[in-house]
Amino acid sequence: MRRIGILVCLLALAAGGCGGGGRHASTSGRLPPRLAGAWARSADEVAAAVAAGRSCRASQLAQSLQADVIEREGSVPTRYRLVLLRAVNHLASGIACTRTTVVTTAPSTEPTAPAQARPAAKPKRAAKPKPQHQPHPHPAHAKPPKPKPGHGPGGGQ
Description:
Low-confidence stretches: 17-25
Distance between the termini: 119 Å
Shape: elongated
Order of helices and strands: HHHHH
Structural class: mainly alpha
Strand content: under 5%
Number of helices: 5
Helix content: 40-55%
Radius of gyration: 47 Å
């Protein structure tokens, strides 16, 4: 929106120096009033389309304004030409046409197949309580037997 305002201001400045006369505008330093007015109206239309959210229309109008300024750049005073061309080119390239597509679907009149039922989950078994550990002799845990007196190495002699 700011770019459009700058362009309109630039056109107003250029139009402010407008004057009649038979001399060519680029040598007189004045922009023909009709041209300045037409471009200002075009810039206003671009601004209105942007404000209304009509980006495709705004883009089309901006490109049309750009083409018109380029076509008639010889009528633009030299001191305004470069700035005006940059502004109008920036404006035209800065507006993107974004189309929004709304898709609506009507409810189907065809009967729908019933949803397939999932197989029932198996019930979980109740956890069995662990049996209490009862001590019992186990060869790996058992203590070696004590030797009887008189048996084994050095026993009694």
